[in-house]
Design a protein that fits this description.
Layout (H helix, E strand, L loop, with lengths): L2 H15 L20 H5 L2 H9 L11 H14 L4 H14 L1
Length: 97
Amino acid sequence: MSMDMKNSKEEFTARIMQLPVLDTHTHLVGDRLCASDFWEIAHYFWLFRELQAGGYPADAMELPENQRISAFLEAYHGTKNTLMNGVLTQILKICTA
């Protein structure tokens, strides 16, 4: 790869990485357009599946909240290389900016 092409690719990647990333695959329900709490976001189907692959229990909603938080954080950190983890991270960055 030529140096010019490598620089162009790096510039392009740098510009793309500055864009906010949001999960646009949703099934909106008219009277429930917004999540009512964090867990509705954290348990979004595809994110939940990736978290389960990282050790998050399938019955997490049945755990006492302090155990659920610990289990979530462990699985969240264990799935940092997944797409939905990146989406959640971006959503949290945007919400806390």
